[in-house]
Design a protein that fits this description.
The protein is α+β, with helices and mostly antiparallel strands and 168 residues long. It has eight helices and six strands; from the N terminus they run αβαααβααββββαα. It starts with a helix and ends in an 11-residue tail after the last helix.
Length: 168
């Protein structure tokens, strides 16, 4: 029971060693909507991502999750094989997706949270700041919010990482 409770409260809701669709999409530089529709197709990318899914005891709770290390290794291998740089990576992702997959124009995308600390889209680290929400595990990936969202809300502003305060 302790393990299940830990998984439910500290792992599944946050970007830790299991990633939700938001973090996988950001890492692949595609929109969540495109990744979700892609996963319903029979393309090579969907089959490869399907093999990276978490299939443990709580696999049906809070939506699909992927093993972070598997996704990171996959992206690294594509990048390593893509000696031509980012454009070659983009070509390989599109090829595996089986057609015209629109990739995000953001370099190093981050998942931005809304005021309820739920994923609200992908942004650029240039337009976002790191935040420290209450109860966010220290072993999870950094939490980000857009500068625009934080500037207009004193409670969110108080959560901004001290090293990012100057950007407000």
């Amino acid at each position: 029971m302790l393990f299940l409770r830990w998984l439910l409260h500290q792992i599944l809701p946050y970007p830790t060693f299991l990633w939700s669709v938001d973090w996988v999409a950001a890492r692949l530089r595609v929109s969540v909507k495109d990744l979700e529709s892609l996963m319903e197709s029979e393309c090579e990318l969907a089959r490869e991502l399907e093999r990276m899914k978490y299939r443990g005891i709580l696999a049906d709770f809070l939506g699909d999750r992927w093993w972070r290390t598997a996704v990171e290794d996959y992206v690294w291998r594509l990048g390593r094989d893509a000696a031509g740089g980012l454009t070659e990576f983009e070509r390989q992702i599109r090829e595996r997706a089986g057609g015209n997959l629109e990739l995000l124009e953001v370099s190093d995308p981050v998942v931005c949270l809304n005021g309820e600390c739920q994923p609200s889209g992908v942004g650029s680290p240039h337009d976002a700041v790191r935040v420290r929400p209450d109860y966010w595990p220290p072993f999870a990936d950094s939490a980000w919010m857009t500068i625009e969202a934080v500037r207009g809300d004193p409670e969110l502003r108080a959560m901004v990482e001290p090293l990012d305060q100057y950007r407000l």
